[in-house]
Amino acid sequence: MTDVEDNSLNPMRPYALTIAGFDPSAGAGVLADVKTLEASGVYGLGACTALTVQNDVRFDRVSWVPLADIQDQIQVLLARFRVDFIKVGLIESLPLLLKLISWLKAQNPAVRIVWDPVLKATAGYEFHAQPDAELLQTICRELALITPNRPEALRLLPAASPEAAAEALAAWCAVLLKGGHADGPEATDLLLLGGERHTLSAPRLPHGEKHGSGCVLSSAVLARLALGDDLATACQSGKAYTAAFLGSNTTLLGYHFISTLL
Fold first, then answer.
1. CA–CA distance from 189 to each of 48, 121, 145, 205, 238 (Å)?
2. Do residues 177 and 192 make contact, with C-beta atoms less than 8 angstroms apart?
3. Rounded percentage of the chain residues whose pLDDT exceeds 70
4. Closest CA to 253 of 22, 24, 89
5. DSSP state for residue 120 in the 8-state scheme
6. In this structure, are strands 59-64 and 43-54 parallel, antiparallel, or unpaired?
């Protein structure tokens, strides 16, 4: 007999799952994702892909969790909770990511997956070199959204500009190109969705740099999807949540607040 909990028993809190690395500072990875999900009105579940030795300014090393152990963490959750929305962050390799996505789709063909392609730590540690284009295409075709920043977009698909790389990625899935690495008085993200371009802008803050901001944005978008928003609305709301997080203090570790969008 299955013990899966029907989400109708908990209508105010849908479940969403983050599959990401463990950051002891809680600024990035699973801990930051779950904080974002909870503050956004979603019950956050988590599975660990890597144990990192880091803080907000230093990255020493990473120990990868084997795929079988990642799957076991997830399987015990799926046996109890209905999960239709999943985010994947730090992962050991893209071939492993494809195996994981294929396995997730076998558990729930309707699951919607957001991938935040963590290729380099804030403190400078590089996780992945340029991926194989054919493998990248296969992965992207299984995603609801990919959320690279500008350097990540160029590493995923070398092009004349981050925008051009995002346009190429958008042939395979929706793309939210994060604009935090650009210059100018506003931080503008670009959502490429079904042939449409949506620009999402917020004032660039004088002390707005935060460890794990990409994790927060992708998790905030995931939360809004779990709450029923369409993708364009979810990205707009996720941008607003992240702007509040970036402006929460002058340190590299931001604060989370209960979303006013609930």
1. 28, 20, 14, 15, 11
2. yes
3. 89
4. 24
5. B
6. antiparallel
- pLDDT tens-digit readout, 206-215: 777 899 999 9
Contact 15, 45 (CB under 8 A): yes
Asked whether the whole model's pTM tops 0.70, one would answer: yes
Closest by alpha carbon to 16, among 81, 66, 61?
81
Scanning the structure block, which residue is given the tokens 């929706």?
174
**Residue 88 corresponds to which tokens in the numbers above?**
């994947």
For the beta carbon of residue 175, count every other beta carbon within 10 angstroms.
24
Domain residue ranges of the chain, discontinuous segments joined by +: 11-246
Q: Residue 53 forms beta bridges with which residues? A: 61
To which CATH superfamily is domain 11-246 assigned? Ribokinase (3.40.1190.20)
Check residue 198 and give its pLDDT: 95
Query: To which H or E segment does residue 133 belong?
Result: helix 133-140
Pick the closest to residue 213 from 24, 47, 33, 15 (CA basis): 33
pLDDT band at 132 (very low <50, low <70, confident <90, very high): confident
The pair of three-digit structure tokens given for residue 142, joined into one six-digit string: 């299984």
Q: Indicate the length of the chain as a whole number.
A: 262
Q: Which phi and psi (to 5°) does residue 79 adopt?
A: -70, -15
Q: What are the residues whose beta carbons fall under 8 Å from the beta carbon of 188, sequence distance 6 or more?
A: 179, 182, 199, 200, 201
Both structure tokens of 240: 């607003």
The predicted-structure confidence for 218-230, as pLDDT tens digits, reads as follows 999 999 999 999 9
State which H helix or E strand residue 190 sits in: strand 186-193
Q: Which helix (H) or strand (E) holds 61?
A: strand 59-64
